[in-house]
Design brief:
There is one protein chain. With 475 residues, the protein is an alpha+beta fold. It has 14 helices and 19 strands. It folds into 3 domains: 170 residues, 2-Layer Sandwich (D-Amino Acid Oxidase, Chain A, domain 2), CATH 3.30.9; 244 residues, FAD/NAD(P)-binding domain, CATH 3.50.50; 33 residues. β1, α2 and β2 form a beta-alpha-beta unit. The longest helix has 21 residues. The two termini are 22 Å apart.
C-alpha cells in the first residue's frame, strides 16, 4: 500500500521535543560569523553567496591562480541555507539521475556521467587535501522499491545505464533485506560508488576554512542588492549591519540558489520549493541490530513523492522528503517550519521501520530548494560574459555545486572545456509560467503525482502533457 496521506495520532507527541533547527547546524563546531562589508571594495572576482556553489567557486579560483583577488559576500552565514539543511547525499550525478539525463541529453550522457564521476573524485580529493572533517563516506546509495510496479521500473535500470558509464546492480527483496530490513522493501538498485554521505554543514565550514587560508575575503551578514555595469567591470551594491557597501569586480559569479537572483531574467526559471526533514534521537544498538544497515548507504524510495534517509555519526536516523511545498509569494522565514510535514514524515518512518514506533525526534526543519523545470542545474553568462550564474540543482546540489562552480569559472574565462561544451550546459530549462498560472500548475502537478503514486504509477493526462513538454516539478 502507498504511504499514509495523513499523520498518525502519535506523531505530534513524538515530535514535541524536536528543535526547530537543522540538525547539522546545531553544532558547537559552527564558526563565528565574520564581519559584514562596509564601504567600497575592489576584486578580480566577486562571488555572491557562500553556500556550496559560492565556496567552491572561490576556492577553485584561488587554487587555479593564487594571485587572483577573490571576495565573497553572503547575506546570512556560511552554509546556513540549502547547504546546511539537506540530507548530506553527495552524488556523482549531474543530471538528477540516469533516467532524467537519458530523457533530456542522451547524446551527451556518457560525457556527463564521466564529468560527474570526476567531480565527485574532486570533492573527495579536496576533503583529503584540506583535512576537512565532514564524515565523507563513499557508502553508495540504495534506490528501493516499495510497490510492485516500482520493481519492474527499477530491475532493468542497471543494464540500461551501463553503456553510459553508470555502475549499479539490482538487489532482489532477499538481497536487499540482508542489508537493510524493512517490511516495505521489494528490491533496490544499489549504486556502490556514485554517492558519498557527508555532514553538509561541516563540509561547508571546511571549504570556508580552505578558502580563507588562500586569502579569500569573506563578508557575512552582507546582502547583495543590485548589479550594475562599472566601466569594464561590474559593481554590486550591498547592505549590512555596518551600513551600505559595494564591490567592483572584473568578474562576478552568482551563487544565490533559490533566493531571488540579481539577474531578473532568471526569476522565470526558478521556484523555491520547501522540503522538510526530521532526525531521531540516538537509537539503541539493539534497534540498529534489528534494522541492519551496516553499510550506511543513503536510501531513497521510488515514489513520485519520495523519501530520503540515512544514518548519522552519532546513531540517529535522518528522514526527509515527500512533501514539496510551493508558497505563492516566494521565500519567507515562516516557511522553513511546517509541523504537518514533520508529523507525516514521522508517520512514514514508522511505516518503513515499525521498530521505531516509539521513537522520539530531536530536530525538525525545512528549507528551500532551487527547483527548475528540468530538475538539473543550468549555467550561463550575462553582461558581456562578465557575470556567470549556476542554479536549479533541484535537490542534488551537494555534489553538483562543485561542477556548477567550475562551469562558471570556465565561462567567465571564455574557456571551451568538456564542462562547457555539452548539451546540458549549452541549454536552459523551460521557464515556469507567471502567477497565478504558476501556483495553479504546481498544485495540479502535486495532486497528480500523489494520484499516480496511488494508482501504480499511472500518470494522468496532465503529467503526460508535462512529460511531452519537458516540464516538471520535483524535490
Amino acid at each position: 500500500m502507498p504511504y499514509a496521506r495523513h499523520p498518525s495520532p502519535r506523531a505530534a507527541a513524538q515530535l514535541q521535543d524536536a528543535k526547530p533547527t537543522p540538525y547539522w547546524l546545531d553544532s558547537p563546531e559552527r564558526p563565528e560569523a565574520l564581519a559584514p562589508l562596509a564601504g567600497a571594495e575592489h576584486a578580480d572576482l566577486l562571488v555572491v553567496g557562500a553556500g556550496f556553489t559560492g565556496l567552491w567557486a572561490a576556492l577553485l579560483a584561488k587554487e587555479a591562480d593564487p594571485a587572483r583577488d577573490v571576495v565573497i559576500v553572503e547575506a546570512g552565514r556560511v552554509g546556513w541555507a540549502a547547504s546546511g539543511r539537506n540530507g548530506g547525499f553527495c552524488a556523482a550525478s549531474l543530471t538528477h539521475g540516469f533516467a532524467n539525463g537519458l530523457a533530456r541529453w542522451p547524446e551527451d550522457l556518457a560525457l556527463l556521467t564521466r564529468l560527474g564521476t570526476e567531480n565527485l573524485a574532486g570533492i573527495a580529493a579536496t576533503v583529503q587535501r584540506y583535512d576537512i572533517d565532514c564524515s565523507f563516506e563513499r557508502t553508495g546509495e540504495l534506490e528501493v522499491a516499495t510497490e510492485p510496479y516500482q520493481v519492474a521500473d527499477l530491475r532493468d535500470l542497471p543494464a540500461q545505464a551501463a553503456p553510459y558509464g553508470e555502475k549499479s546492480e539490482w538487489l532482489d527483496a532477499d538481497a536487499l533485506r540482508a542489508r537493510v530490513r524493512s517490511p516495505l522493501y521489494l528490491g533496490a538498485v544499489l549504486d556502490r560508488d556514485g554517492v558519498a554521505m557527508v555532514d553538509p554543514a561541516r563540509l561547508a565550514w571546511g571549504l570556508r576554512r580552505a578558502a580563507l587560508s588562500h586569502g579569500v575575503r569573506l563578508y557575512e551578514g552582507t546582502q547583495a542588492l543590485d548589479l550594475q555595469d562599472a566601466g569594464t567591470g561590474v559593481r554590486v551594491t550591498t547592505a549590512g549591519a555596518d551600513g551600505p557597501g559595494s564591490v567592483t569586480a572584473a568578474r562576478v559569479a552568482l551563487a544565490t540558489n533559490a533566493f531571488p537572483p540579481l539577474l531578473r531574467r532568471l526569476r522565470h526559471f526558478l521556484v523555491p520549493v520547501y522540503d522538510y526533514a526530521v532526525v531521531t534521537e540516538p537509537l539503541p544498538q539493539a534497534v540498529w541490530d534489528e534494522i541492519g544497515w551496516a553499510g550506511r548507504e543513503g536510501i531513497g524510495d521510488s515514489g513520485n513523492q519520495f523519501h530520503y534517509y540515512r544514518r548519522t555519526d552519532d546513531g540517529r536516523m535522518l528522514f526527509g522528503g515527500y512533501d514539496a511545498i510551493y508558497h505563492r509569494g516566494g521565500m519567507a522565514p515562516q516557511h522553513t517550519h511546517r509541523p504537518a510535514s514533520y508529523e507525516l514524515l514521522a508517520t512514514h518512518l514508522t511505516e518503513t521501520f515499525p521498530v521505531l514506533a516509539d521513537v522520539r525526534f530531536s530536530h525538525a526543519w525545512g528549507g528551500a530548494i532551487d527547483t527548475c523545470s528540468r530538475f538539473a542545474s543550468f549555467m550561463g553568462t550575462a553582461r558581456g560574459g562578465r557575470v556567470a550564474y549556476a542554479a536549479g540543482y533541484t535537490g542534488l546540489g551537494v555534489g553538483a555545486s562543485r561542477f556548477g562552480a567550475a562551469v562558471m569559472l570556465d565561462l567567465l574565462a571564455a574557456r571551451r572545456t568538456d564542462r562547457t561544451e555539452n548539451a546540458m550546459v549549452r541549454s536552459m530549462p523551460l521557464p515556469f509560467p507567471p502567477e497565478p498560472l504558476r501556483s495553479a500548475g504546481i498544485e495540479l502537478t502535486r495532486w497528480s503525482l500523489d494520484r499516480a503514486d496511488r494508482r501504480e504509477g499511472r500518470r494522468n493526462l496532465w503529467l503526460r502533457t508535462l512529460d511531452r513538454l519537458g516540464l516538471g516539478f520535483d524535490s
